[in-house]
């Protein structure tokens, strides 16, 4: 796909320059969306040579802004390096926030995102990190270790933090961790009831206290979460694991169309290299990018 160069004038007033940059950004987004749609239609979406993780990193502030504009009270922020997380948490607490969220990147040495839900309860702070992939890969393991290390190092400025990692294991592709994390952050907001119950578990004696890093995964996690958290899972096997742990997980609609989890997954599964892979998260990226392209406040 030949992308024409975008020329920006330099002899402009501040307002004109801002408008021109917005137009250039909108054009860039529209070209990206067109590429995504073409790859989705051709089946190239899972093997694309475009580095969408890097593209998502550059667009993450816009994605976060659009999410906050749409979901009042989401309180979602982007942290590009775990080293900045403690100060961001302190700032949120100082501003009177009782529940707030982050999409956090692993930092200088690479790109991997996860979502964090924070809740203050009786002066104690519960942090739940939702890892879209699993901890067997370098990126997710490094991110989890860095977040835990930064929280321990700054324990004096954060009130009694309790940290838990929820290993979702729904990501199978290489570049979709950012979009998964934005989606999980939104879901932690819209599905607050099970999340609040999980925070209570984290803060109770049922899970270790203090700064020990707990890990919830597999059946233990699947029993606690509703099916909407799994709607973008890329593997049919992972969905089957969830239903075994949560037998009524296919009884509740997961979207506005009223589709059940497995019916929706079946509709979006496509053959890739002799395997069935869900195109759901790739369609989700198109929707997220379309939102920031169409929303003038976000561009």
Automatic annotation (TrEMBL):
Reactions the enzyme catalyzes: L-threonyl-[protein] + acetyl-CoA = O-acetyl-L-threonyl-[protein] + CoA; L-seryl-[protein] + acetyl-CoA = O-acetyl-L-seryl-[protein] + CoA
InterPro entries per the UniProt record, alphabetical: YopJ-like
Assigned keywords, A-Z: Acyltransferase, Plasmid, Transferase
One Pfam family cited in the UniProt record for this chain: Acetyltransf_14
Molecular function in Gene Ontology: acyltransferase activity
NCBIfam families found in the cross-reference section: PRK15371.1
Similarity remark: Belongs to the acetyltransferase YopJ family.
Name recorded for this polypeptide: Putative peptidase C55
